[in-house]
Design goal:
- This protein is mostly beta strands.
- The protein has no helices and five strands.
- Strands 1-2-3-4-5 form a five-stranded antiparallel beta sheet, with no helix packed on it.
């Protein structure tokens, strides 16, 4: 996971502190399965790029005993899924389009 975080503190009418965060994470996962006594072996692979942007603003009020918090979050996930079915007797492979 990668994250960039920037914070700024200077009291004004809108906020006392602001924080901006950008994060990225890459997930990769694969599975191979075959039912008992079946000739077909299924192989699936998923690759996920997850992105997030977060903006937080903090404002203290009433002699610094109360807080107002503003927050905006955006999340985007890019998913690529591939799969194939292989006959273990002939080693013939076909692309599996289910779930792609």
């Amino acid at each position: 996971m990668n994250m960039l975080s920037v914070e700024y503190s200077k009291a004004n009418v809108t906020f006392d502190k602001v924080a901006f965060r950008f994060a990225h994470q890459l997930f990769e996962e694969s599975r191979i399965d075959r039912s008992l006594n079946k000739d077909d072996r299924t192989t699936n692979a998923e690759k996920v790029n997850a992105y997030s942007v977060n903006l937080d603003l903090v404002k203290k009020i009433k002699r610094k005993t109360h807080l107002i918090l503003w927050c905006r979050v955006a999340i985007y996930d890019k998913v690529k899924s591939t799969g194939e079915i292989t006959d273990i007797n002939t080693n013939e492979t076909v692309e599996d389009c289910q779930g792609i």
